[in-house]
Amino acid sequence: MKFKRINASSNARLMKALIDNDLTYQELADHVGLHYLTVARFMRELHKHKVIHVCEWRKDARGCASAKVWAFGEAKDAKKPAPLGRTRMRIARARKAQAAVLHMMAGRLAA
Q1: How deeply is 77 buried, as exposed, middle or buried, from its count of CB atoms within 10 A (0-12, 13-18, 19+)?
Q2: Residue 52 pLDDT > 50, yes or no?
Q3: Distance between CA 83 and CA 39 in Å, rounded?
Q4: Longest Cα pair distance anywhere in the chain, in angstroms?
Q5: How far apart are CA 88 and CA 3, in angstroms?
Q6: Residues 20/26/29/32 CA torsion (nearest 10 deg)
Q7: What is the DSSP letter of 44?
Q8: Of 22, 31, 56, 104, whose CA is between 20 and 30 Å from 78?
């Protein structure tokens, strides 16, 4: 996919996408065909001038709330949820222990 520079047309598509939907940087970049960093720079300026706001935080594959979801209009930004920290480590250790038990059981069944 060839990326384009931001111009009047891509600017209009970005604004229409924001008015119609609540989207992340990546979703906007994919929708308009601009590079992720170009969209991020543009969105930072819109946010600075209170044209858009963070309406929610989406979780990534690891379960961390790291993707800002942008919405058109002036409103207070949604607070970023607290990191999982120790809870995430506890879950990871439990999964690892469970995988070890399953691996051991599979070895016994095969023998």
Answers
A1: middle
A2: yes
A3: 26
A4: 68
A5: 37
A6: -30
A7: H
A8: 31
